[in-house]
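At this stage, I needed to go through a protein sequence along with its fold in token form, as given directly below:
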Amino acid sequence: MDIMYYFALFAKAIDQINYEDTEHYQITKAFLNNPKPMLEELFKPEDD
């Protein structure tokens, strides 16, 4: 499998990072692998 890279813009530099190391990828993968905990967090009642 080809490795995909992402160019991340930080405060003073642009860095090349592995796509699988991005926060977007990790959150999406965690959701797809086990959606229940995230859905519970998203739809839990707000504290007053």
About this structure: The helical segments are 23-33, 35-43. The first strand starts at residue 5 and ends at 9. The chain has a mean pLDDT of 85. The chain has two helices and two strands.
